[in-house]
Amino acid sequence: MPTVTSPDGTRIAYERHGDGPPLVLLHGGLTRRYWEPLVPQFAGDFTVVTPDRRGRGESDDTAPYSIEREVEDTRAVVDAVAETPVLFGHSFGGLQAIETARVASVEAVVAYEPAYLVDEYRETADLAARMQARLDAGEPAEATKLHLCEVLRDDIDDIDDIDAWLDEWPVWPAPVDHVENTIRMNRALENHPLPDSLDVDAPVLLLTGSEGPSHLRESVRAVHDALPDSRLVEFEGVGHSGPTEAPDRTVEAVRDFLATVTPARSA
Asked: Taking the complete model, does pTM exceed 0.90, yes or no?
């Protein structure tokens, strides 16, 4: 598997699929394998690049952790591709894509519910502390469930609901393996305010689902207001995992957007 080296020396692993202009897919709380349902649909027309975030999958890790270092990781991947890429991120990966576009040249950005915390939710956010308490009590699975209750759907309100939901979720219990990384990610997000203006030169497509958590649906609209050039698309009946819940609709929206903003390069 190819790798790049981030400025702090961390080795970031990634896969490449297909042929064409580069499309870098940035995952959220899992690994690069999150994108497997979408890769075949893009690989016919793009060189699809799927990195593992630091400390996840095949990538290495280096302390201390920060969002800035995650952005440096993405910049290292961007520098490794032959052309200026499109960045498509989900959740934390959406924030990562936008923050990277503030400091690096990209063709366009797509972000599904980027994980900025805004308004009252951010002021009272204590998810990292609550997860840490469960982990300290020797309950990594319960700590992970606290995170999932916050990010999956508005109709999952408590642990009883999520246990029933997880029985049908093929990914479970893989997220438990990343619980410590998820806690540090949440702690960093709680201390990462959304600026009044996001200085991104590239066009941005923001995606959201009508069934996602209300705080992320509010966040994506705040991000929309903070960007100089963005459009917002909402998928009816879809939650926070929109790219994998509705891959066909996601691919169609991304293709339509890129055909408009990069007509010479899109299929």
From this structure: yes
